[in-house]
Amino acid sequence: VRLVESGGGLVQPGGSLRLSCAASGFTFSSADMSWYRQAPGKERELVATINTFYSPLNYADSVKGRFTISRANDKNTVYLQMNSLKPEDTAMYYCKTTWKIVAYWGQGTQVTVSS
Questions:
Q1: Which of 8, 18, 109 is nearest to 72 (CA)?
Q2: Mean of the pLDDT values across residues 15-33?
């Protein structure tokens, strides 16, 4: 199983970014996919999950109405569209899946929101 995130970067407050996570090594269409984030000095937190029926689940309260998780099974990719970004969204963002009871994580992509 391999998960590779991309799309992070430096953005001004109020801006947008779209993160991507390219997956391989398992049956992507049969797995729920999640985005997590971890800010310096803080615990890793769940941002959003999307199930195999393309239904978003479990948005963190702090991102509701601003972030949207989606997936493209034909591309084995999960996305996180982030709008109206705030400085407190600054963190390393990770893609995660659980396949055959084992959890797999990507290496992360850094998002920095600053003027």
A1: 18
A2: 97
Say which residues have a Cβ less than 8 Å from residue 80's Cβ, sequence separation at least 6: 18, 19, 21, 35, 47, 48, 67, 68, 69, 93
Measured CA to CA in angstroms, residue 112 lies from 7, 33, 52, 68, 95 at distances of 12, 23, 30, 18, 17
Rounded to whole angstroms, how far apart are CA atoms 14 and 23?
Answer: 29
Dist CA 67 CA 28 (whole Å): 22
Buried b (16+ CB within 10 A) or exposed e, 49-87: bbeeeeeeeebeeebeeebbbebeeeebbbbbebeebee
pLDDT tens-digit profile of 48-104? 999 988 887 889 999 999 999 999 999 999 999 999 999 999 999 999 999 999 999
